[in-house]
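Hi there. Long-time user, first ticket. I'm pasting a complex I've been working with (about 1210 residues overall). I'd like to know whether the download I got is complete or cut off, because the file seemed smaller than I expected. Thanks.
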Amino acid sequence: MVSLGYPEERFEDVLEERRCNSDLLFSARRFAPPTYKHRCPRSPAALRRAVLDSPRLQQAIREMAGEDGDTEALRQEAQSILREMGHNQGMTVVRTFAFMLSRIFKALFRHVRVNEEGVQRVQKVVQECPIVLLPSHRSYIDFLLMSFLCYSYDLPLPVIAAGMDFQGMRLVGEMLQASGAFYMRRSFSNNPFYWAVFSEYVQAIVRNGDAPLEFFLEGTRSRSNKSLSPKLGLLSIVMEPLLRAQVFDALLVPVSISYERILEENLYARELVGVPKPKESTSGLLKAHRILQNDYGSVFVYFHPPMSLKSFISGRLDITPFSMTPRHMALRLSDTLRVLVHHLAHSVVLRQQHGMVVTPWSLLTTLLLQAPSDHLFPTSCNSEGGVHLPDLLHDVRCLRTVITKIGAMQDWPDAQSHEAVVLSTLAMNSSLVTLTKEGRVLLNVDKVDRPKCRDDILNRACTVLTCAAYRNHILHLFVRPAFVAMAQRHAGSVEDGPTFSHFCFLVQLFSEEFIFEPGSERKDYEEGLSLLQRCSSLLYPLDSQHHPSTITTNFSVFLGQIFQPFCCSYQMVCNYLLTLEHGSMQKESQLLASLQEFALQQLLEGRSTELEILAINVYKNAVASLSRLGALRRERRKDGVWFLTTSQLHHVADAVASLKPPSQLPAKL
Amino acid sequence: MAAAPGNERSQERLQRIMGHLQGNAAPEGRRSSAVAQTIESSEQLKPSSASTIPKRRQEVLKWNGWGYIDSKFAINKQQQVEFLGKRYKLSGVVLPALREWMETTFGASLDHRSAPKSHLNPEYIPPPVQNAGFLLELKEMGIAHSLDAEDRLFRAHGHCLHEIFALRGGGKFERIPDLVVWPCCHEDVLKIVNLAVTHNVCIIPFGGGTSVSSALECPLEEKRCILSLDMTQMNQILWIDENNLTACIEAGIIGQDLERKLAERGFCTGHEPDSVEFSSLGGWVATRASGMKKNVYGNIEDLLVHLKVVTPRGVLEKSCQGPRLSTGPDVYHMVLGSEGTLGVITEVTLKIRPLPECQKYGSVVFPNFAQGVACLREMARQRCAPASVRLMDNAQFQFGHALKPQVSSIFTSFLDGLKKLYITKFKGFDPNNLCVATLLFEGDRETVLQQEMQVYKVAAKFGGLAAGEDNGQRGYMLTFVIAYLRDLGMDYYIIGESFETSIPWDRVLDLCRNVKGRLVQESRDHGVQFSPLATCSGKTT
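Hi, the file is complete. Here it is re-exported in full:
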């Protein structure tokens, strides 16, 4: 059992027992989890039949068929959609998975730690209400892990909304379906019939509470390891049974899964710099067996207290109008409801963030990425680059103090010395960092000479972005105080008025990048301000004689530096857009590619040193944000999404350009 | 409306005029106004038998609970529940299963008693707000009235849980009527209302006092004199029209009196709300009441032909006996459900029916509640629902079972055992899931038989098994004794309340589940130690 700074939360290692006992017995053990008390048991096939015969689907078929349309053909289409989509959960495959996953997890991870209290909270309510599990999404492992945990803790096995990409994989696709996955197409807003079938399928599961529903609010795995802006479609589908009073309540259980090392770390970085993601295939998965020989450290799973959807709605939304629509007809989502779902989704993601565990590696990357060195143009190859180990140890200690103050859960083996922890973490990530004989810690990019070609830059960017992902894992802790610090510097004062308005601008500009609860800027500001003040006062006394690093000398500058890569990226995007003719338009994919090319040129020409500006996910967010601010106009056409520059662009670009780098940023060129 | 032969009509007319001249209808001077008795048909109505409810209601009815003073559930010497009194079929019967059911269901204990106060606490009675001018003129008119504390308090409430709870604690109500007045006829009401308008007195009409909508509660902020207008002395059937099958009745008549008097003449209204023993005709109209047998007879709004309502601005009534008009909105629909806020209902003309030739109980067992609901839905679709059908969920079924009287012979208990065996073992019904629909068929023999057949056929489609007359009859008994049972429960720290609603078919199951869920949640949130018993029953509308 491990305590992670939250005295009331005890984490238990699930693998501990697995390492002592037989996996075969584990997979064959009696499994009779409690179920929702009003559930009528039915097979996956019966569920599909019920959906097919549901009044809602019948109505959709009638509507689609029109006056003299062929309802039979549509019925068959619905049937084939359901066959393609529906899960097929069965105990044989589940037990096979239990056996295999137990083996795999033991090989991959040192520990899988779970807050048992959270599990017990879920166990308590499973019988009372339909449950919706909402894990964070950082890896393919996520949903396997969730099902594995449910099996281990005698919770009913969830059915999981998965992306279609698995479905194409031979055998594996079917295996996953048999373990409880059902598939949703990535985009079906323009296919109302598919939408009808899919939403009825999901709602049928919620209404009868066949099994806990599990899906990923973020929609896809976050490659950057930052929480993604939540997708609202599935959540609004889930809300409907409650709005129509078909269930008494539904409970949302946010789950935070933190990985010490993510299995896909290399893949993600390559995707972010534009090397396309390899298509999922079974043989590809088999090749991945090499992964098994690596050490991926620990995983932390935090089950949050269930959130009652009913209490969330009460007082915010009058549900009586929903009773006016006959049940076989789809509900029209009102604007109020959309806003509410938006709000709910954000508060779930914020909770997920809150349950993330800070790992030693995330602290080290945060510090190393800011080290006074230049990843592109190292001043000298062996002696000057990187950080002195004792300095690093000192800064880690400071950062830990700050994080304790902020109140996040930390994984830090208490029994070992500081140095031991840092050294073992560095060893685990030896593909990214090196500890030189001289006792300096270097990112692996720092070792090579000045880059000559694009490939070299891209490779370096990959390493930097892999590290950045771990820094991103804890950015949510700093974003509020950092924005306050940046706003104060921008306003040139600590006065409330101008600082707050610039804070709001930052929140607005980066709202795709970082998660903020909509409409609570004031609260966020106050929180950030108070944290900033408390942390600064905490650190000044610690100011050490032997190593005046930024974190102790000027905490607000330190915070600003953490977010500098994002400012650079946004400025780069604006700069590129300014090179375009006014009113010119580009297709989304083309725009993103040009942005990356532009960024690469900047780096090659030495006009920028920030390798993170190559990350394509940031462009997407920036473009979305600029569209919202009116600098771009988004147009959906038959052949995709197009963007047009507007007359507002200059105005917005000026504001973005005014995000000055922190004053103490070491000038290196 | 068939035309009667001319000579018959003139005969009738002559007799009616004679009736006026003789002036024979005012029995023992109970009419304060000579004008009151206007219409008497040739078939002269018998002088009124006294109402079930006298002016001093507390002489017959419990002041702090439901029903007659002499009828109640009590624990006898053998520590078993017994229903005391002589009035009901159940009176004097021991119910051996009830005590255990109470103990296991609610965790109640006989040692843990919460007895009601034996008398009302005089200190709780607020002094009346007097309106001297009004009282003086009222006295001059010779209309019966009372300022007595008990009379006032016993008209300050209906039968909601919180009201009975207050009574059991000695009768603490913040505001009660200041004056009770008993009019004897429509003209009395007219005078009282006019007088009240003149002297700025407010009126709350009072019938049987069985309201569960808090309509009888006096508004706290009311500073004027509040007059409770007790209608129970206006309880005559003014006339019965056998040709048109209508009857004109004074609004204060109590349900059971109305049915008894009509039955003497071979008629009935068929309107049977659960409170029919104690509620009044005017109350039915004012609360838009629904009767148990409405499938055959209709709800009160369907039975209504004519109304007289005394309002502060004059009498509201239609100028004809036509059962419906196609021009303009129906003013009666405003009065229906107005809970006495618009005026005082004094006389009501209702459709009546000949007494049914045949009445038969029945019951059907379903494997679960959902099947039962589906069956009722089908009955409604086919429009073959009998006079009354009531579906009880499993909890209510078990509750009903706890009310089974002591079996008289080994043979009956053996038969009961066999029945249970058949249903649970042979048919595979889960005793903790099955539910029962109780049925009541009414009409001529042929219709009843035919309807029975159709109903059981529909039921069979939904897995329903006919479960005999006894079960049916006991189910209906439950509706009459349930309020007595609440009093027993309150003696042992158990409270109970019932509420009704109507909803579309496809939401029935959701509603039942959600309401039960809410009750459980609220109880838990309020720190109630035991989980509440929530049962539901439904009928077709």
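A couple of notes from our side: The longest strand of chain A covers residues 251-259. Chain A has 27 helices and 18 strands.
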